[in-house]
Design goal:
The complex is a heterodimer of chains A (131) and B (133). With 131 residues, chain A is mainly alpha-helical. Helices cover 76% and strands 0% of the residues of chain A. In chain A, α1 crosses α3. The longest helix of chain A is centred in the N-terminal third of the chain and has 32 residues, at 19-50. Chain A starts with 18 loop residues before the first helix and ends in a 5-residue tail after the last helix. Chain B has 133 residues and is mainly α. Chain B has a single domain, classed as 3 helical TM bundles of succinate and fumarate reductases (Up-down Bundle). The chains are: A mainly alpha (131), B mainly alpha (133). At the A-B interface, α1, α2, α3 and α4 of A face α3, α4, α5 and α6 of B.
Chain lengths: 131, 133
């Protein structure tokens, strides 16, 4: 809640949805999702350090339908945040701010993140499951 | 500006006011570290994906042997440190943008820092334990 009575600038409600603003928001959302995902990284490393029983529990969780659902979600989040992060790094060098280029790289990020996720999970399923 | 500020002005330079508040060499610290951890995470994430795929059909002993390998353990350490550092910096900006109640913002920032530091320490501990035992 704002603590002062100063007027606010026009906010989301007045803008038509565009690719660039959507990707910006999704970049943040996937970032938050990946922070939650670090809990699985932690759990995995701890189970590995703890012993075979703990590791077996993690393997069972990752192979369960809910585990696979989470893992596919995190894989796409990671691929998107990685690709769009590289897009941000390009912007930091001053490259790619022209509107057509910002849209071209934006669509490239969307396509590439889906392709990478599909590639990773085809590796998983071709090798016979998630555990 | 109150009376004590004016008195200070007599024998303190403006540097006293600027230090730690902006452009006294540390204003871009957050920006630079966020980018540096991002650059480090690009190859590290690709490597971790590859490592995870190798772990798919490994039993416990094989998985442990993989992380026991000095190169893998070192890269994993680099990954978790860069990961939790980058996570803290990113969530910090989100909280700064969306949490406008001061006490909530400060509490959230402290909790996120504690979580990320604890996460980095705990995962480093687990990796070192597997690597050395």
């Amino acid at each position: 809640m704002p603590q002062s009575a100063r007027p606010l600038s026009p906010h989301l409600g007045i803008y038509r949805w565009q690719l660039t603003m959507t990707l910006s928001i999704v970049h943040r959302a996937t970032g938050i999702a990946l922070v939650v995902g670090t809990l699985l990284v932690l759990a995995g490393l701890f189970a590995l350090a703890a012993g075979p029983e703990a590791y077996a529990k993690i393997q069972t969780f990752c192979a369960s339908p809910f585990g696979i659902f989470l893992l596919i979600g995190w894989t796409w989040s990671l691929c998107f945040h990685l690709c769009n992060g590289i897009r941000h790094l390009a912007w930091d060098t001053g490259w790619g701010y022209e509107i057509p280029r910002a849209y071209a790289t934006g669509w490239a990020v969307v396509v590439l993140s889906v392709v990478l996720t599909a590639l990773i999970w085809s590796c998983v399923f071709m090798r016979g499951g998630a555990a | 500006m109150n009376a004590s500020d004016r008195n200070e002005g007599n024998y303190r330079t403006p540097l006293k006011r600027v230090r730690g508040l902006g452009s006294a060499k540390e204003g871009i610290h957050h920006f630079v570290i966020q980018r540096m951890t991002a650059v480090a995470l690009v190859p590290l994430v690709l490597w971790v994906i590859w490592l995870s795929l190798r772990l798919l059909h490994a039993d416990y002993a094989q998985a442990r042997a993989l992380v026991h390998d000095p190169v893998n353990a070192t890269l994993l350490l680099a990954f978790v440190i860069a990961l939790f550092w980058h996570a803290q910096l990113g969530v910090q900006v989100v909280i700064e943008d969306y949490v406008h109640t001061r006490w909530l913002e400060v509490t959230a920032q402290v909790l996120v820092k504690f979580f990320c530091i604890a996460g980095a320490l705990a995962s480093a501990f687990a990796i070192v334990r597997v690597a050395l035992v």
